[in-house]
């Protein structure tokens, strides 16, 4: 863009997931540049995954390391998205999203790779992974090229975070070797307390998932009945799958909605048809 004949008043921004690299480059550009990172998205991509309400109530981080006086101008331009704007330096941004988004993607992908090795030894393991394991590793389905780029442009921070993570795991490993039950329990207690204090169903660094689980009896037409009631209410489902973790008369239908409002409306409609359903916290 630096070689294009742009107007002197042009204002450029981006929506990338890392900021230090691009903000360093921006200082050399002949136009005003303000970094941006809307904390909203999906593990899906492409035109069909589009959502006009994607940024609504989501945090939109603005990085203005170039000391531009036009930050308010950019925010005014983006205000119709109904996002919540937060200003951070590029370094602070990359450290925060490194912990809350980038490292979890690495951990999730690593867990999936370990499970694949397990599948080679125990073919039935993939069935058992259809429930909670599939949920906690869902972000591993994100675009591999995008995540390669994210790590390469946040290299220094990610190396440090990975070392911190490995250190924490080594400490836990040693406590297990030493059979230090109280220390191990404290590890989980602290994790539970921190996790329980996190905001519920707020847009954050990792895309939120609005999933509903429905017990489906093994009778003809049960799944069709659920999807028909949602269709009649003009509720869109962005993903549908049947979990294979049960071998009794009930299966579990997993429905993914676009937002929290659709999720709650869908739950009410399905329960009105006498199906049992629930939302994982």
TrEMBL record:
GO terms for molecular function: NAD+ binding; prephenate dehydrogenase (NAD+) activity; prephenate dehydrogenase (NADP+) activity. Its EC number is 1.3.1.12. Pathway: Amino-acid biosynthesis; L-tyrosine biosynthesis; (4-hydroxyphenyl)pyruvate from prephenate (NAD(+) route): step 1/1. Keywords: Amino-acid biosynthesis, Aromatic amino acid biosynthesis, NAD, Oxidoreductase, Tyrosine biosynthesis. Residues 211-281 form the ACT domain. It comes from Enterococcus hirae (strain ATCC 9790 / DSM 20160 / JCM 8729 / LMG 6399 / NBRC 3181 / NCIMB 6459 / NCDO 1258 / NCTC 12367 / WDCM 00089 / R). It catalyses: prephenate + NAD(+) = 3-(4-hydroxyphenyl)pyruvate + CO2 + NADH. Residues 1-206 form the Prephenate/arogenate dehydrogenase domain. This is Prephenate dehydrogenase. GO terms for biological process: tyrosine biosynthetic process.
């Amino acid at each position: 863009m630096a070689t294009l004949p742009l107007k002197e008043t042009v204002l450029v921004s981006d929506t990338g997931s890392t900021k230090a690299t691009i903000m360093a480059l921006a200082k050399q550009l002949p136009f005003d540049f303000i970094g941006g990172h809307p904390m909203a998205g999906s593990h899906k991509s492409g035109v069909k995954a589009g959502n006009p309400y994607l940024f609504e109530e989501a945090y939109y981080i603005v990085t203005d390391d170039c000391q531009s006086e036009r930050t308010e101008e950019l925010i005014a331009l983006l205000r119709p998205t109904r996002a919540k704007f937060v200003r951070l330096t590029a370094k602070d941004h990359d450290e925060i999203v490194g912990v809350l988004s980038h490292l979890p993607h690495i951990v999730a992908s690593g867990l999936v790779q370990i499970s694949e090795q397990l599948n080679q030894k125990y073919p039935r393991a993939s069935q058992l992974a259809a429930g909670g394991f599939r949920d906690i590793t869902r972000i591993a389905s994100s675009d591999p090229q995008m995540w390669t780029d994210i790590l390469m442009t946040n290299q220094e921070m990610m190396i440090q975070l990975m070392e911190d993570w490995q250190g924490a795991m080594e400490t836990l490993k040693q406590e297990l070797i030493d059979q230090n039950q109280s220390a191990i329990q404290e590890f989980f207690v602290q994790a539970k307390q921190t996790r329980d204090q996190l905001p519920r169903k707020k847009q954050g660094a990792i895309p939120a998932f609005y999933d509903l689980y429905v017990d489906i009896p093994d009778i003809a037409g049960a799944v069709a009945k659920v999807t028909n009631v949602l269709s009649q209410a003009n509720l869109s489902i962005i993903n549908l799958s049947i979990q294979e973790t049960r071998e009794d008369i009930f299966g579990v239908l997993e429905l993914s909605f676009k937002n929290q409002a659709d999720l709650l409306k869908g739950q009410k409609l399905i329960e009105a048809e006498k199906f049992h359903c629930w939302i994982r916290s």
